[in-house]
Specification:
The complex is a heterodimer of chains A (286) and B (320). Chain A is mainly alpha-helical and 286 residues long. Chain A has helices spanning 7-35, 39-42, 56-62, 80-110, 116-125, 131-145, 151-176, 179-187, 192-221, 224-229, 236-243, 251-280. By secondary structure, chain B is mostly helical. The chains are: A mainly alpha (286), B mainly alpha (320). At the A-B interface, helix 1, helix 4, helix 5, helix 6 and helix 7 of A face helix 2, helix 3, helix 5, helix 6 and helix 7 of B. Chain A: Keywords: Cell membrane, Membrane, Sugar transport, Transmembrane, Transmembrane helix, Transport.
Chain lengths: 286, 320
């Protein structure tokens, strides 16, 4: 049932929504514009809204060979390596988390194991662990056992971000699947392993893909772990912060870097809006 | 049409059910024992991976009781000396104030704006249905990208925000470059980023309210505001609080946005505990002292989260 509204009220509400949407999108639009500007156009006052777009900033960002021969002088940027690092670490972390976390999520949803709720909470609790409290001791441990600045070490550390979420989310998605189906299959004599493989997994697929997208996003977001535990294997978020150092005249290149890091999340919204909503709200939104 | 509006069954029950411990006693038959070994085998890898972090967590607490510095070969247990030294400094208390102020203010403002945004989008006017995915936008961006994005926009010399302010006749604002306005600017960034989090959860709460309840209120003569104040608000209050629990924990731990914009400055006006811990541990190389700061941060998070969960349980009981 919906309220009947007068045309003027409805118009006003639409205007309000448009204003909110503008506030939420304007910073991104502005950054995209900035990334397409020339250095001189960024330094002007008042800021310009109309300009001839250039891809020069993206070239500076990625063109390692040409470094030094740009309008920005001798500032050397290598943005491709951090992106590759982020992709490797995020994919690695997601793969491990899915392999380790989904079985745990299934058991915590369906089976009677001792201390089930305690285990579930123990696992979710890590989502809110203060990262630095773990990372400060980890720094010395990693230096000692030689895991500092390795993909292996980074992928393991990222589990503190991705694993709790995938356990929690896959558990919540599995609870949505009616239990009757599994019970009926068990009645017909199917082995538990076959039930999971042939009945639960196909039903779980969309949710699982959504949850994987979300934890990929969380891995992509992470900054503090990479800042402290890596140097040459640093993720793209750490590389971004370095682009800030040269100062205002370098803003267009940094904007180009920001655009690159923001493209993937925006694409993910298009792919799986509902799953992201569910994941980002810890399952409160279904 | 937005499919969510039609079949989106949106209730807090699953979350609430997960948060409340299950009461049903496990009934085991002899045949299920073999199966349980499978179950345990499925859970153990996840727990083992995470136990490593638990060990590190305790190791961190242990480090906070030592005088560990980077490169120092001999480490002594110093008991609570790190803590005792910390609470004597004015810097520490300003960090505590910054942490509490940042998180408290951000969560409060986000709750209010989030409620307004959710109400607005729940009207389901044409644009509200069309613009639904836009709410999600700030949440999916890396916090570091958000921080740097706002840094460029808040530039006092030629940032776009000061230009927009100049259009309405306000002269240059210092934003993050002045100690008196830096904290306000950071809270503004946090509010822009995480108001949608509240909006999404509260929106789910509003959708869960039975239309009959609203209808009954209207039949009894309740006007729009009264329906909101006495019917909707109490019913969505648990949603607001659960969102506040999550956000409070994360803003008390906030590192990326503050480190990406001010790195604790100017002066130490925005040096929240986590940022100060980073500086102490990795720039001054006093690991023990840094760990002590993080332990205190963790205790604050624990107390804050516990209080909020208590409040949430209390409100939820009153509603149901």
């Amino acid at each position: 049932m919906r309220l009947r509204r007068s045309t003027s009220t409805s118009l006003m509400l639409n205007v309000l929504v448009a204003a909110c949407a503008l506030i939420l999108t304007f910073p991104l639009v502005w950054i995209v514009m900035m990334s397409l500007k020339q250095q001189s156009e960024v330094m002007t006052w008042p800021p310009t809204f109309i300009f001839t777009p250039t891809l020069e900033n993206f070239r500076v960002l990625f063109d390692v060979a040409q470094a030094g021969a740009t309008s920005y002088g001798t500032i050397k940027v290598d943005f491709l390596t951090p992106i590759a690092n982020s992709v490797v670490i995020a994919f690695g972390a997601v793969t491990i988390s899915v392999l380790v976390g989904v079985p745990a999520g299934y058991v915590l949803a369906r089976r009677d194991v001792p201390f089930k709720e305690d285990i579930a909470f123990f696992i979710l609790g890590f989502r809110f662990a203060p990262a630095l409290l773990v990372v400060i001791p980890l720094f010395s441990v990693f230096q000692r056992i030689g895991l500092y600045d390795t993909y292996f070490g980074m992928i393991w550390v990222y589990q503190v971000v991705t694993l709790p979420m995938i356990v929690w989310l896959s558990r919540s998605y599995i609870e949505d699947i009616p239990k009757d189906i599994e019970e009926a299959a068990a009645m017909d004599g199917a082995k538990p392993f076959r039930i999971v493989l042939h009945i639960v997994l196909p039903l779980l697929k969309p949710g699982l893909i959504g949850a994987s997208l979300l934890i990929f996003l969380l891995a992509w977001h992470n900054f503090a772990l990479g800042l402290i535990l890596s140097s040459t294997r640093a993720p793209v978020t750490v590389a971004l912060l370095k682009l800030l150092n040269p100062g205002v005249q370098f803003y267009p290149v940094m904007a180009a870097g920001l655009v690159v890091t923001m493209v993937i999340p925006v694409v993910l919204i298009v792919l799986g809006q509902r799953h992201l909503e569910r994941g980002l709200t810890f399952g409160a939104v279904k | 049409m937005d499919p969510r509006g039609i079949n989106g069954t949106v209730t807090l029950q699953p979350t609430a059910g997960q948060l409340a411990s299950s009461k049903d006693e496990p009934v085991k038959s002899a045949g299920e024992w073999r199966l349980d070994w499978w179950s345990i085998a499925a859970v153990v890898p996840a727990i083992v991976v995470l136990l490593g972090f638990l060990f590190l967590f305790f190791y961190g607490i242990f480090q906070s009781l030592t005088d560990l510095r980077f490169g120092r070969p001999l480490v002594h247990l110093v008991g609570f000396n790190n803590y005792a030294a910390l609470i004597k400094t004015e810097d520490f208390w300003s960090s505590v104030r910054a942490t509490l102020g940042y998180a408290g203010l951000a969560v409060l403002v986000e709750a209010i704006f989030g409620l307004a945004l959710a109400k607005l989008f729940a009207t389901e006017v044409f644009l509200a249905r069309l613009m639904r995915p836009v709410i999600l936008l700030p949440l999916v961006l890396p916090p570091m990208s958000v921080a740097l994005m706002w840094t460029t926009m808040m530039d006092p010399q030629n940032g776009i925000l000061n230009y927009l302010l100049s259009l309405v006749g306000i002269s240059r604002f210092a934003w993050i470059s002045d100690p008196t306005t830096a904290m306000f600017s950071l809270v503004l960034i946090d509010v822009w980023t995480y108001t949608p989090f509240f909006a999404l959860i509260i929106f789910a709460g509003l959708q869960g309210i039975n239309d009959e309840v609203r209808e009954a209120a209207r039949v009894n003569g309740a006007k729009g505001w009264a329906t909101f104040r006495y019917i909707e608000l109490p019913l969505v209050a648990p949603y607001i609080l659960i969102a506040a629990v999550f956000r409070l924990i994360e803003s008390l731990n906030q590192f990326d946005i503050i480190f990406g914009t001010t790195q604790g400055g100017p002066g130490d006006s925005t040096a929240v505990l986590s940022v100060r811990a980073y500086i102490v541990a990795f720039q001054n190389l006093a690991f023990g002292r840094g760990a002590a700061l993080m332990v205190i941060n963790w205790l604050i998070v624990l107390v804050g989260a516990f209080a909020m969960v208590k409040l949430w349980r209390f409100v939820r009981q009153r509603v149901s």
